[in-house]
Amino acid sequence: MASQNRYPAAASVAAARKGAEPSGGAARGPVGKRLQQELMTLMMSGDKGISAFPESDNLFKWVGTIHGAAGTVYEDLRYKLSLEFPSGYPYNAPTVKSALYDVRTILLSIQSLLGEPNIDSPLNTHAAELWKNPTAFKKYLQETYSKQVSGQDP
């Protein structure tokens, strides 16, 4: 990707401090602060095999890299992703583009998340709390699902 520079971490730290957004102005309030925080957390995490940095000085467009895990068929493979964060992030999901994903992979990933959600970092904190009580969670799920199917706001 031409917009990636040689030292993406250095450029990314500068972008995070600057609070850059697509228009080049100040970060969009809480969303910009959230992205700055997530960038710093990611950079300091030491997680092996994943990285992401803002593209150029745009805090709302990132380039991510996933390295295949050792001992798997993906070992020694590297996948690049383009992430675009909307002004409503984290309540509105980012757009992710990658040749890695096809329709089947996307659907299987969602199915996997439904079976094993990450309750340590939930989008819906109420549902995450209920997950600990399967009976209460199922009741909440059925109510929410029924409202969505009937066209009502959940």
TrEMBL record:
Cite the InterPro entries for this sequence. Ub_conjugating_enzyme, UBC, UBQ-conjugating_enzyme/RWD
The UBC core domain sits at: 30-154
Q: PROSITE patterns per the record? A: UBC_2
Spell out the Pfam families in the cross-references. Answer: UQ_con (PF00179)
| SUPFAM superfamilies, sorted | UBC-like
Q: CDD domains recorded for this chain?
A: UBCc_UBE2C (cd23791)
Q: What is this protein called?
A: Ubiquitin-conjugating enzyme E2 C-like isoform X2
Q: Which organism is it from?
A: Enhydra lutris kenyoni
* Name of the coding gene: LOC111139951
